[in-house]
Every structure is written in C-alpha cells, then in structure tokens.
Amino acid sequence: MVEFLKAAEVGEEMRWADISKKSVNKLALELSASIYRADGKSTFKEEFVTAGGVDLKEIEFKTFASKKIPNLYFAGEVLNIDAVTGGFNFQAAWTGGWIVGNAMAEAFK
Ligand SMILES: Cc1cc2nc3c(=O)[nH]c(=O)nc-3n(C[C@H](O)[C@H](O)[C@H](O)COP(=O)(O)OP(=O)(O)OC[C@H]3O[C@@H](n4cnc5c(N)ncnc54)[C@H](O)[C@@H]3O)c2cc1C
To answer: How many angstroms is it from 99 CA to the middle of ligand 1?
Structure first.
C-alpha cells in the first residue's frame, strides 16, 4: 500500500467521496509535512500515463479534420501522438486547437 495512504488510514480502493474529513486532513498533513527519501529514478517512459487515441492516419493535418467523418475535428490528447514528445504535448494541444478553431470557423461561415 502507498505509504502516505497508510499513514492517513485511507484504503487504496476507497472512493474520495467516502473518505472522512479526519482522513482528508491527515492525508493533507502527510503529503505536505512528511519527508520521503528518493531511491533513484524510474525507467524512462514509465511517466507516460496515457497512450492511444484517434489514429493519425485518419486525420487531415492541414485542418485536423477527420478523414472519415465530415465536420469532425480532433486536437490534443485525443490524438494518438505516442512518442517521446519531451513536454511538447501542451504545445501540440494548443497549436492543434488553434488550427481546428480556424478550420471550423472557415468551414462553417
Ligand atoms: C501528470 C501529467 C503531467 C503532464 N506534464 C506535461 C508537461 O510537462 N508538458 C506537456 O507538454 N504536457 C504534459 N502533460 C500532457 C498534457 O497535460 C496534455 O497533453 C494536454 O493537457 C492535453 O490537452 P487537451 O486539451 O487535449 O486535453 P485535456 O487537458 O485532457 O482536456 C480535456 C478536457 O475535456 C474534458 N472532458 C472530458 N470528457 C468530457 C465530456 N464528455 N464532456 C465535456 N468535457 C469533457 C475534461 O474534463 C478536460 O477538461 C502531462 C499530463 C499529465 C497527466
């Protein structure tokens, strides 16, 4: 069990809504006041929490429109950009969003 959950007497499977106020306070104290020793870093790529999404082959990248379904656009995390992006996911989401916004405004004017 995760150490800070154990210390705050919160079960790993507990739902947030079911946690008592006392345990929430213990958890906040545990997270903000405890000292944890780092044993090293984990394997590269373990930090990836999401993968998958709409296949890039299905996207027209000039407008980010779906090649399959007319008037459907995708941008950001919903696309299957699965690579070592080095923190450029935000940039991809913002740029894609801007392109989609412009393309939609053009398509529906
Ligand atoms: C822990 C973590 C750290 C990260 N660190 C970095 C970093 O350092 N640099 C970087 O570039 N990227 C980082 N990323 C990735 C980055 O956060 C995402 O790529 C980016 O936020 C994607 O933006 P988005 O708008 O596509 O999706 P999101 O930010 O996920 O936005 C989607 C929104 O849609 C809403 N939503 C979902 N379903 C529905 C629905 N049915 N109806 C209405 N709304 C809905 C959600 O609530 C959410 O607000 C990190 C991601 C995580 C999880």
So the answer is: 18
